[in-house]
Amino acid sequence: MLTTANRANTPALQHVAAGLWGLRDVFANLYFVRNLDVIADSWVLIDAGLPGSGQKVQRSAEALFGEKNPPAAILLTHGHFDHVGALPHLLAAWPDVPVYAHSLELPYLTGRSSYPPPDPTVGGGAMAAMSFLYPKKPLDLGSRVQPLPADGTVPNLPGWRWVHTPGHTPGHVSFFRENDHTLVAGDAFVTVLAESGVATFTQKQEVNGPPAYFTPDWQHARYSVALLEGMEPKLAATGHGIPMRGEELRKQLADLVKHFDEKAVPARGRYVGHPATADESGVLSVPPAAPSTIPLWLVGAGLAVAGGIWLARNSHKISGARQSRRAPKQSYSSSTVYRG
Fold first, then answer.
1. DSSP 145
2. Domain count of the chain?
3. How many percent of the chain have pLDDT more than 70?
4. Dist CA 186 CA 321 (whole Å)
5. What is the Cα–Cα distance from 47 to 76, expressed in whole angstroms?
6. Residue-wise over 254-276: b if at least 16 C-beta within 10 A, else e?
């Protein structure tokens, strides 16, 4: 269980709501959810952070639920690199834990297709400018991944339901707890300006559309935000940014729906007015790449911000390592068919 001592070793782990904890992994969030209807510590993991974060996620899970207590399941809002990066480590550590995702997301989780290429020309800041550097290849989870139940129920989480919220990816889903209107929205919308390096570093809280550089279908993205706003969430825990709640969430989310084209859709970009197409086999086509006008200094700024975020999140580890060294030793493409 999470005590004062082990909380100090997991500073990015925060309680969000009853039975819900969030972990910020550099610039992406993942969530631990406990089944409130079961006395035992049955729990699930929603999303899995960045590549290389497996030990961090596992330590956080152990801090919350104890050692040798793996999740009943891992649920994915979608399969972008910053939401599945820890899976290779976690699936090795938890060999009997199943992974669930929407059926339209399975091609990107079984090695059959890559996602449409990110679009660094959308503007908005350094995180968008350097998106061409982000990992693009699909994971191959084989038989470990299976489709979410078609009836909208969520495995091992009674009282929750999943909702198909496409646009950011074809099989993107969000998770909703009926009794208190708690929403885990993934990247259907986010609570930070994800394109901006400065906003990502400072975590300035505001409702925004899905990360533009990785959104290939704006018509569906618009539909999904309106769908979630109509569910009247009282708390939104998103894939990027600090969870929001109450009247401020309601007001900003309604404003995003009303002004989606001005607030979310980029003024220019590869997929603006020309969505990528996909089916159950993966991506079928993508529009030609837009001409790039990104200054090199902006890409450099993005890399500097990313490094600064990493240092800020890991400064306690660096400090601890330095102290340990000082201490005396003790005994103890743009083709019409896009396949990855």
1. E
2. 1
3. 82
4. 34
5. 5
6. eebbeebeebbbbeebbbbebbb
Give the residue numbers spanning the domain of 248.
4-314
List, edge to edge, every strand of the sheet that includes 160-164.
160-164, 173-177, 182-186, 235-238, 244-245
The DSSP bridge partners found for residue 29 are 24
Neighbours of 105 (CB within 10 A): 27
- Measured distance CA(309)–CA(95) in Å, rounded: 32
Residue 152 backbone phi and psi in degrees, to 5: 90, -5
pLDDT in tens, 254-300: 999 999 999 999 999 999 999 999 999 999 999 999 776 665 445 55
Q: Which two tokens stand for residue 82?
A: 């910053």
* Residue 338 forms part of a structural domain: no
Q: How far is 218 from 129, CA to CA, in rounded Å? A: 19
The answer as to whether 320 is a domain residue is: no
Residue 140 lies in a domain: yes
Is 127 a member of any domain? Answer: yes
List the beta bridge partners of residue 182: 177, 235
